[in-house]
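During the first year of the project, the team set up a workflow for recording each protein of interest as an amino acid sequence followed immediately by a discrete structure-token representation. This format lets reviewers and collaborators read both layers of information side by side without switching files. As required by the reporting guidelines, we include two representative entries from the current panel. The first entry is reproduced here exactly as it appears in our internal archive.
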Amino acid sequence: MTATAAVPPKVLISYSHDSSAHRDRVLQLADRLRQDGIDCTIDQYVPSPPEGWPRWMMNQIEQSAFVLMVCTDIYHRRVRGQGEPDKGKGADWEGAIITQEIYDAKGKNTKFIPVIFGPDDTAQIPIFVRGVAFYRVDLEEGYEQLYR
């Protein structure tokens, strides 16, 4: 009898494009998850999806076992639809989809996981995911807890 390898979970990282430095650290997180065997994706891996960004985001959220929400002040405002009107449409759209999925599940949530890069970001975790554990991924201990 042959042993079959476990299929790694599919993970999407949802985040806002706050700055190039922030995009870089999100990319580093995605790359590390991939190196550790997680099937992780972010928009930076896909220059232009043929189905367009709205459908790509919707499909990725639906197909992912977990969605990591990188919580910052800008992300928090955008996922709540309170960002600048002509900026951050991706995080705004993802926020609408995530909120609807949690609403449809009557508040139960095992899929959407808040992650932060610093202690000040805990205040930026959207209310609809505050009831689940969050992980501070800039610390090795926090990354390891998330990974496990």
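The second entry, processed by the same pipeline in the following quarter, appears below.
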Amino acid sequence: TSSAYYRPRFDYTYNGSSWVPAGLLIEGAATNLALQSNTFISVSWNKSAVAVAQNVTGPDGVANSAWTATASAGTVVHAIYQSSTSLTVVGNSVIAKAGTANYLGLGFDLDAKTDGAFFNLTSGTVGTVAAGATASIQNLGGGWYRCFVTRTYASGTHYITIEPHTADAQVQTWNAAGT
């Protein structure tokens, strides 16, 4: 959400059936280091055995504002990733909904199992969190969740990874059916 007119922004919570005002939105400064963060067909994003398509109505209710990520058939690395230069604290945040793969892995240099976290998109819970990482999940309603993981690194270039999974703590090279 933009505050281009320098007006206060307000936060809302979902009560199970509608969004209700929760008060003034106060956020710390942040910079999105992911290039083309909602354009997964961009050359900024590398794909390993994952096909992407912008073909889903997102949590905003707008047709084709969200993406499907389909793991290709076979036992290979399934991930969408890009490099990111960061200072020390890095975060990876994705708004997601369960499909045929009901777990989401968010990681950094290696994979979610090694340096990130898993999220159960059916139950809306945080799964396995790697040592040194912190994770949280927020229910946005309609089956959508904002999943967030952070960790601290030395400065330099790191990777942001988004991984579809069918189980908690699953390795990147799981055997996908291709659906």
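For the second entry, the following points were noted during internal review. The mean pLDDT is 85. The longest strand covers residues 156-165. Both points are flagged for discussion at the upcoming steering committee meeting.
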